[in-house]
Structure formats: structure tokens, C-alpha cells
Specification:
about 300 residues; 10 helices; 13 strands; Metallo-beta-lactamase, Chain A; single chain; alpha/beta
Amino acid sequence: MRRRLVLGAVLALGVLSMAARAAQLAPVKPSAAAIDVEKLAGNLFVLRAPGSGGATAVFVMGNGVMLVDTKVSGWGPSMLETIKTLTDKPVTTIVNTHTHFDHVNGNPEYPGTVEIVTHANTKTYMEQWNPVYGINVGDNPSPFKASGGRGLPTRTFTDRLTLGGGAESVDLYYYGRAHTGGDTYVVFRNARVLHAGDTFPNKNAPIMDRNNGGSGVAYADTLAKAAATPNVDRVITGHSTTVSVAELKEYSDFIREWVAYVQAGKKAGRTVDEVVSAWKIPDRFKGYTPVQPGMGNWRPNAQVIWDETQ
């Protein structure tokens, strides 16, 4: 163990936004030295690094290592180097929380024998490789096309799936549409930890990616179901710190207020732009910011909610 992650302003900016701006900014060179490790339990760790993509959970089991999400392209070797400092066991399983490039692009960089598990919808979106609605990531080719299909899911589920067993049980849940149409919540049962992926990226506006099945109107209810998952104390966010279940519930309330505000604006006959320009985050959501830095999410979010609201 090299050091426990202490997140500061860099990750508060949102790793996805950093990746999204990679076409305009100098690329971040993958390096094991840049990866910070947070230990959540004796065999559960979270790996984060600026510019690398979403938070990766590393779960060390008796017969191998399970990863949850694999970051952007190029980070596989650095990840494997870091994992070797935690265990000598090989990576045997990858679970992807959703389809986006900053969570799945690293898949082909692991051995072809690794089992890759996703929700059935996520497998479809990974094969389609649709652009992410609301952001411009520039040239973003499919890593699976380039690898001849390597890295695509080899196992899927629809509602719930348990991997492993006993103290190594990992439960996968699908609670409905939110960030995408295939968001998977991963629960490390013995550690009482839930990985929320980018349904809870950080305390900013989320991405409601309707190009990949996401929904604005359903988002808050999906989060509320996740917050009600039994026997969970801590939550791994997609691009920020590990937080409490109460904070996940608060994020659900935050999204619910935003959706209700947009819907009320439409009912009152206002335009989308008028609604967005007048929005002010309620005081009770202390520490929340209005946009993902580098991406103006309120406007595309409002459009998604607007178009879903009759």
C-alpha cells in the first residue's frame, strides 16, 4: 500500500471532464506512480488517478482479482503494475458499471481469458458505441472494433446477479435508467460497500446520456432504489471520494429537485434556456456546483427532461 487517497481540487474537477477535454489539452501519460490507492477493506481497494477515467475497484479473491471499471485507453499496464503491489493473483473478472469510454476503454488491455460482466443493455451500447449525449469528446473510436471484439462483455444479467460466494460475494443490481440505460450497482457484500459508477459521479450535474438509454425523469428514482440497497454503509462514486449512503440519498434528492424545476418551467410555458439560466442550486445542497467542469451539463440535461415530459 503506497498511500491512501486524499482527494483535492484536481479530482473535484471530475476525471471524466478531464478525459473529455483530452483532445484540446495535453494528454495525461499513464503511470503507476500517478495512481492513488484507497483501502476500504482487507481485500478491497479503489484506484484513482487524474486523467485516467472513472474510479476502479480492485477486489482480491481467493482465486483472482475482480476489477470494476478499467479507465481510459492506455492505463492497463499501469493498473496491472499497481495491482501487483496489492496481490500476486491475476485479474480474472471485470465488471463494467456502464458503457462510457472512461470506464470500459481499458478492457482490451487485460488478458483475453478475463470474464467481463455487464448489464445486458450495456453490452448492446458497447457494441453500438454511440456518442455520449451532451458532451463533445472529439475523436472517440471504439476500442472493441480496434481489438477485433476483445474486451466486450462475455456474461450479462438483467436484474440481479451474484458473483463469487461466501465472504467473497459480489452482488450486481440493475435499478433502472439513470446515467445510461444499463447502469450496474456493484455491492461488495462483506465490506458493505457499493460502487455507484457515474450515476453518482460527484456533487455536480450528472450526464443524462439518452444516446445510451439514460433518462432524466427516471434518474432520481433509480438513485433512491440504490440508496435503499440493504447492508451498505459506503459508496464509491464515479469520479470523487468514497461517501456515505446518506450522501447517495441526498444526490437523489438533488436530481429530483432539478427535474421538478425543469418540468415546472415547461408547464409554465418557459423555454429551456430560460429555465436553465434561472436555476439556482438550493442552499441545502452545500458543496454542489452547477456543472461538471469543462462541460455545461445543465442545458443538455434540461433538454432530456424536457423531451421526456409530456
